[in-house]
């Protein structure tokens, strides 16, 4: 990775840490610069305003999510449903560890057309990957919607499930990815 790309990624990771600890509304480019250990000018060289930073962060988080799914999928012994199982496993991990960042990302999507479009593009790609994963595309869509629902219940604190029930739901959903097409 080139030095400029490393610096850019470090700034984004610093912004992610701030989002996780303070939320979207309260962070500024000055604070991101301080968190990253750079001057504000060093940050604005890559991200001229908060919206560009947020869009870049959304893109980075979406790509990291997809990369983690692909890494998990590549370890599967059974090809059919492997991408979907990867998504279930990565989502299970995320639901335990990074819901604050996800809340900030959703808030950014609501506040910015560009961030919203980036998130929508990611959802379309996930839908396409799941419905072409070698098992019933309707079941794949139901699984995606179930995972989305788990995220949203956490994100909006809309009666989130306790760990035991969420784990049981995810295990049931994961088992559906082995269902052959009828």
From TrEMBL:
The keyword Transcription regulation is assigned to this record: yes
Record-linked Pfam families: TetR_C_28 (PF17937), TetR_N (PF00440)
Name the UniProt record assigns to this protein: TetR family transcriptional regulator
Swiss-Prot/TrEMBL keywords: DNA-binding, Transcription, Transcription regulation
PROSITE patterns xref list: HTH_TETR_2 (PS50977)
Domain HTH tetR-type: 5-65
Family matches, as InterPro entries: Homeodomain-like_sf (IPR009057), HTH-type_TetR-like_transc_reg (IPR050109), HTH_TetR (IPR001647), Tet_transcr_reg_TetR-rel_C_sf (IPR036271), TetR_CgmR_C (IPR041479)
Listed SUPFAM superfamilies: Homeodomain-like, Tetracyclin repressor-like, C-terminal domain
UniProt-recorded Gene Ontology molecular function terms: DNA-binding transcription factor activity; transcription cis-regulatory region binding
Organism field: Vagococcus allomyrinae
Keyword Ribonucleoprotein on entry: no
DNA-binding annotation, residue ranges on this chain: 28-47
């Amino acid at each position: 990775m080139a030095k400029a790309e490393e610096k850019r990624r470090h700034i984004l990771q610093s912004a992610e840490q701030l989002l996780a600890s303070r939320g979207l509304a309260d962070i500024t480019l000055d604070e991101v610069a301080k968190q990253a250990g750079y001057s504000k000018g060093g940050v604005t060289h890559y991200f001229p305003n908060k919206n560009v930073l947020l869009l870049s962060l959304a893109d980075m988080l979406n790509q990291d999510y997809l990369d983690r799914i692909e890494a998990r999928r590549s370890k599967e012994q059974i090809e059919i449903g492997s991408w979907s199982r990867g998504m279930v496993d990565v989502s299970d991990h995320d639901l335990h560890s990074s819901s604050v960042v996800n809340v900030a990302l959703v808030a950014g999507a609501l506040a910015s057309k560009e961030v919203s479009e980036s998130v929508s593009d990611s959802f379309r790609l996930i839908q396409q990957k799941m419905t072409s994963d070698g098992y019933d595309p309707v079941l794949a869509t139901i699984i995606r919607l179930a995972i989305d629902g788990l995220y949203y219940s956490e994100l909006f604190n809309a009666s989130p499930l306790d760990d035991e029930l969420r784990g049981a739901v995810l295990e049931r959903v994961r088992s559906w990815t082995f269902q052959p097409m009828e």
